[in-house]
Amino acid sequence: MKKKMLLVGLAMMTILAACQNDDGLSGVNNGENNEFVPIQLTETETRAASQSNDFAFRLFKALEAAPAVSARPQNFVSPLSASFALSMLANGAEGQTKQELLDALGFGSLTMDEINSYNEKLATKLAGLDKRSIVRMANSVWTNEGFPVLDTYQATLAQYYAAEAYTVDMRAPSTLDVINAWCADKTENLIPKFLDKTPEDLQVLLLNALYFKGEWETPFDAAKTVEGDFRNADGSTSHPQMMNMREFFPYARGESFGLARLPFGNEAYSLQILLPDEDTTLEECLSSLDKATWDALQNGLYGVDMNLRLPKFKVESENGLMEVLKALGVKQAFMEDEANFSKISPRSLYVGMVQQEVAFGIDEKGAEAAAVTGVGLVGEIALPRPEPEQVDFFVERPFLALLVEKSTGTILFMGRVSVL
């Protein structure tokens, strides 16, 4: 899929992140008939939702500016997944390290309690928005054996983010398989292998997984799907399978592009397509796209009789986000001697990895998407474990046997063996 489709994933995940819209793009399912009921947000939560959209556009633009990314035929990102992973990280930061993270996320004017409460509400409500859409989010924190992590930090992540806590040997080859299995399970196997390796000095790993599957409100007729022409950014032409439909859809005009909103289920979720005019490149459209422009477009949607032609596609994007976050003003978190994550551990830590992988696809029935964002904190490598004392234990004479429950110490069975 070429550059004209780059913004599809951004628009999709932006809708998930916003969770509030005058046009009714989010809500909670209430009743057997899949009735749409908008989510009620407080004034603070409304501000947080708005700032999440601002972060989404800044993140996407910073990623697009990266040379390695701009050369790709596709680029998808999940602002929502990134925001949750970085919010979990911010809970463990102090001082300038914390402020830089919150400013990058757009949450600089909010307290950590306000951010956590908003994220908790968002994660809880997303799952029940639409009976014809599935949204699942999962969080986890992985700690290297022997590395001290404060109970208060893990309790905060458990309370607000339902984060599962694991203690593992980060150096064991099997640990990589366990982490990847967690990612695969939480994304319906759309992302079966998130990590190829773990840094040697990895001490704490924060993971967020996001999964979406939605049915179109009006499915495409597969019999009308035909091979079509798609003009690529480099001037060449490809021939994807094109889905076709004539239907009443919300539409808005920008200065040099059109925007169509294709709803799922009860319209709680939608896929929005930004299509540049014939004489305009997608890059030119992106340069003028920000939160204010996006808000104006959402408020300007109106119904039209649309002849729609949309390519089927499946794409995957793997993004290293460290340089992107630096471009957004996060500096100290990556500095070994200055990062302050004292609310995670009494030992020094700094961020050595921020990575996201996204899978996204649409067909005649609907859309399916998943993202995993990982933040790896590295620190002093633990001292090698001493070789254990060698003991010969030969049970060659009468002995006593006990079967004991670990947590209470209860002895379930006890017996002497004198003769075998």
Short characterization:
Helix content is 29%, strand content 31%. With 420 residues, it is an alpha+beta fold.
Explain this structure.
The protein is of the alpha+beta class. It has 2 domains: 3-216 and 313-379, Antithrombin, Chain I, domain 2, CATH 3.30.497; 222-311, Alpha-1-antitrypsin, domain 1 (Roll). It contains 11 helices and 17 strands. The chain has helices at residues 7-18, 43-65, 67-70, 79-90, 95-105, 112-126, 151-161, 173-186, 282-287, 291-299, 322-327, and strands spanning 28-29, 36-37, 133-144, 164-168, 202-215, 226-227, 230-231, 237-238, 241-253, 257-264, 269-276, 302-311, 313-320, 349-362, 366-379, 399-404, 411-417. The strands form 5 sheets. The protein has a 6-stranded mixed sheet, sandwiched between helices. Strands 6, 9, 10, 11 and 12 form a 5-stranded antiparallel sheet that branches. The chain has a two-stranded antiparallel ribbon with strand order 1-2. A hairpin with a 5-residue loop joins strand 7 (230-231) and strand 8. Helix 1 runs antiparallel to helix 2 (43-65) and helix 4 runs antiparallel to helix 5. The longest helix has 23 residues, at 43-65. The protein is globular and about 85 Å long. The N and C termini lie far apart (71 Å).
Name of the top-level CATH class of the largest domain: Alpha Beta
* Count of beta strands: 17
Order of helices and strands: HEEHHHHHEHEHEEEEEEEHHEEHEEEE
Helix content: 25-40%
Note the total helix count.
Answer: 11
Mean pLDDT: 84
Give me the CATH superfamily of the largest domain: Antithrombin, subunit I, domain 2
Strand order of the largest sheet: 4-3-5-15-14-13
Assigned CATH architecture of the largest domain: 2-Layer Sandwich
* Low-confidence runs of at least 5 consecutive residues: 1-31
Q: How much beta, percentage-wise? A: 25-35%
Radius of gyration, CA atoms, in whole angstroms: 25 Å
Oligomerization status of the protein chains: single chain
CATH topology of the largest domain: Antithrombin, Chain I, domain 2
Shape: globular
Question: Structural class given helices, strands, pairing?
Answer: alpha+beta
Distance between the termini: 71 Å
The description of the largest β-sheet is: 6 strands, mixed
Could you say how many structural domains there are in total?
Answer: 2
